[in-house]
Amino acid sequence: MRKLVSIVVIGAAAALVFATLSAARPAAAHFRLSTTLNAGQEIPKQAVKNAAGHGTFTGTLVGTKLTWKLTWAKLTGGAGAAHIHLGAKGVSGNVIVPLCTPCGAAATGSKSGTSKIPASLLKTIQKHGTYVNVHTAKNPNGEIRGQLVAKSG
Q1: Domain count, the chain
Q2: Cβ atoms within 10 Å, residue 5
Q3: CATH at residue 51
Q4: What is the pLDDT along the chain (153 residues), one digit of tens a residue?
Q5: Domain that holds residue 77
Q6: Is 102 within a domain?
Q7: pTM for the full model?
């Protein structure tokens, strides 16, 4: 009988330890990302002026997995590429996440997908230190841009 009680007590203790360790693991961070893209935010300024171009970017970031949707309209041509760049508002920066290359041959379109975000950049994204821009043949440095805003949940 003592052996049976010992086994039950050890089993219960093991289950309690497992439950405690499982609960102690932090849940993956969950953020909604969004921005409105336009020509006025583009740095450096457009080579070929086009104030009509605009777009949106929305995404859900869970841990380091980003599920996103990008739209664009009234560009000077097809969207040759789109990226998430490192850089504060008004500052040009390096590409950190390629979104699509090419994105679409039309001046108006959309694209969606998933991307992996480097864990080292999660805090930078949360602090508005990244932006999305869409490049065209006439504006290879970028035609429209929007600073990413991250909200919990």
Answers
A1: 1
A2: 9
A3: 2.60.40.200
A4: 555 445 544 544 444 444 444 445 556 779 999 999 999 999 999 999 999 999 999 999 999 999 999 999 999 999 999 999 999 999 999 999 999 999 999 999 999 999 999 999 999 999 999 999 999 999 999 999 999 999 997
A5: 30-152
A6: yes
A7: 0.81
